[in-house]
Amino acid sequence: MKKYAAFIVFCFALAPVYAQISVVGATISSANTSYNVGTPSNSQVFNSDAGSTIYIDVPWSLSSPVPFTQHRIYRVNSTWKLDKVFIGANGPTITPLYTKAGTDLTPPCDWSNGLLLTGTCIGQSSQPTQATTITSNFMVIPQLSSSAISSLSSPPKGALIFDTTNNCLRLYNGTEWKCLVAQ
What residue stretch is flagged as signal peptide (predicted)? Predict the structure, then answer.
């Protein structure tokens, strides 16, 4: 088991981690991806609630090629939204995908419709979960309860999550979650 843990730390140390949030369980498969913190100018969200964070999968700019597609997570009027923006020759088309009421400045982890966020989001305990972070001294990976892990639909093979119920690091092998290191 120590070999697995050392290998995992080594792999994460090789690649910088930029994602703030990852989405799984969306019926639109292109929305199941990683999102970074965005700004009003690179997300085209100018009406978001004050203090709330905007997340985007791909930043937009005036030099972006057309057509261009972007997914956004943001809060407007105390409702978190995940939508798809298509920017074509005739301007943008916005397709709402999911909404979830919430007044927290951070989006909810469980949207109660099959959509789950991991990373910097508010879980059932109203405490933010953490995105994968790497420092010179340690690495922290996403943390979810066993029930939340079991409810993830179509996780990618090789996904890692710390199981807070069983205090173990779980690896998805393509068919099931395996506990690698139990505490």
Answer: 1-19
Joined together, the tokens standing for residue 75 give 């809060």
Quote the tokens at residue 22: 């990852």
Strand 139-140 to 133-134 pairing: antiparallel
Handedness of CA 167, 172, 178, 180 (dihedral sign): negative
CA 55/CA 62 separation, integer angstroms: 19
For 126, the enclosing helix (H) or strand (E) is none
Helix/strand number for the chain, H first, E second? 3, 13
- Output phi, psi for 151, to 5 deg: -85, -5
For residues 39-54, give the mean pLDDT: 80
Q: Residues of the chain with pLDDT > 90: what percent?
A: 7
Q: Which of 135, 129, 92, 91 is nearest to 109 (CA)?
A: 129
What is the pLDDT, as a whole number, of residue 130?
47
**Rounded CA separation 113/2 (Å):** 37
Are 143 and 162 in contact by the 8 Å Cβ rule? The answer is yes
